[in-house]
């Protein structure tokens, strides 16, 4: 058996060893700069979490299906956004954007982007805006009916700076794409819980965004005309077009590594910082939301405690709800929400029926699998 005996392994021209060997017990110390865990800055990059469910054909913008991925549509096209099991090997989910109404006459100001927005406090290790600024290694899997050039942009929303790269989708199969964006010594990202850096996947762009020179070799002041390649496809020009995305990863440095798979529970907990809903799942249509007491004859007041969110959430509700009181059920006509904080709020369910003051009651869905109270602290 052959052996190699060394004290250390050092790169050519390096001043320190990459691996140092303990000559007594044979163990070693490695100088690893690309950590194997907690590398991916993207939340739900594997598209496992779709708390809101699927979105039918719409021209609206918003978080329509997959958590943390915003559909930003300013065109005449419509898409259905759904969770898909059509995936590359090693993944359980992707998100599908299915063009249901085409846009073949793109106006100058039209655009269609898929966006992932990130908090500045989670990105400080890029050292952006300093002499120690790091590169950005971005990777993702795409399957698209429309082949051709796509523009992928990193956008610094704190300092109105941007850098764009292109990929060429040459077939309709699943493929992994890797891009290295340069370091930026100008413009530090804010160290707070607000949106600082956005990944933009451009599926359609009017001349306001692609008529200049693509800002690709270095970061620069965000100029709309320089954001998108003049060769960028219009992926919404046919109702036959589908676009699938999964395995999105952004990491510090100039090396792309294998996708970091987090567990379903980990991804769900990370997504809950931005969005939660009650009842959490469709169930049988009778999910309980909160217990409360009756302060007056038409009101049930309670408390809703939830995992900490990025900020005090915006609260909306949809669907049909009921109050369970004295072995009977009455319909909720409206809700009021008070004292909204990052971890709790006080909801009030209002009914036109007469309740017994001082007693307890439960509030939940009324035979409606779509009924939800929705808490959003999205970027």
How would you describe this structure to a colleague?
Helices cover 3% and strands 41% of the residues. With 379 residues, it is mainly beta. The chain folds into three domains: 1-31, no CATH class; 55-272, Sandwich (Jelly Rolls), CATH 2.60.120; 275-376, Immunoglobulin-like. The strands form five sheets. Strands 17, 18, 19, 21, 22, 23, 24 and 25 form an eight-stranded antiparallel beta sheet that branches. The mean pLDDT is 95.
Number of helices: 2
CATH class of the largest domain: Mainly Beta
Order of helices and strands: EEEEEEEEEEEEEHEEHEEEEEEEEEEE
> Tell me about the biggest sheet?
8 strands, antiparallel
CATH architecture assignment of the largest domain: Sandwich
- Distance linking N and C termini: 59 Å
Mean pLDDT: 95
Name given to the CATH homologous superfamily of the largest domain? Galactose-binding domain-like
Query: How much helical structure, as a percent, in the residues?
Result: under 10%
CATH topology annotation of the largest domain: Jelly Rolls
How big a fraction of the residues is strand? 35-45%
Low-pLDDT runs of 5+ residues are none
- Radius of gyration from the alpha-carbon trace, in angstroms: 25 Å
Tell me the structural class.
mainly beta
The 3D shape can be described as: globular
